[in-house]
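Homework-ish question, so no full write-ups if that breaks the rules, but can someone show me the predicted structure for this set?
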Amino acid sequence: GAVVSQHPSWVICKSGTSVKIECRSLDFQATTMFWYRQFPKQSLMLMATSNEGSKATYEQGVEKDKFLINHASLTLSTLTVTSAHPEDSSFYICSARDSSSGRGKLSYNEQFFGPGTRLTVL
Amino acid sequence: GENVEQHPSTLSVQEGDSAVIKCTYSDSASNYFPWYKQELGKGPQLIIDIRSNVGEKKDQRIAVTLNKTAKHFSLHITETQPEDSAVYFCAAGTNAGKSTFGDGTTLTVKP
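A: Not a homework solution, just the prediction itself:
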């Protein structure tokens, strides 16, 4: 159990276009999802925290108008990179956590990560 | 905010030997300490975690120790195998809060 999927797994786009990445929790309801980006041989950098039904909380230095996050349901969050540029090329990873009470199956604040999306902007 | 330091950045061991990776954190409010294994081109996978009310946890060849006073925790892998080769990340966080990741350790297990 506790599977998180991402789509697409990789995408190549032209500079100036927008790209949408989906993150889905397949067998649990995720009240909280996190979006990270990871450059080669570097750690995961948290971009934003997404709570279902409310606005995302962005980390310092992350442009909310450039990286649009929508968490419209308990199983889906999307990240849209608007007007992408080559410097946005990176590995984007989401994670999901079931923070609700009463679910004995999942550890309280354990994060389950998706497989990542490789974005290349030409 | 939380600051997590991880050492070493690279670690090479012979198959069968043990590997130890250490992390320190700064925020005394942190109470959840997971370890992740990331293979090339994939997302991180949780391999073990520990909470602040426990000093040690073991799962087969993997163990984690936590010293809250000193604010450090360590990952121990015994009887290493080539398939253990990957990048390992520690993290520190709080209940219902976000986790801060270390910079990662590239572990290479030589056959």
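Now go work out the reasoning yourself. Hint: Chain B is about 0% helix and 55% strand.
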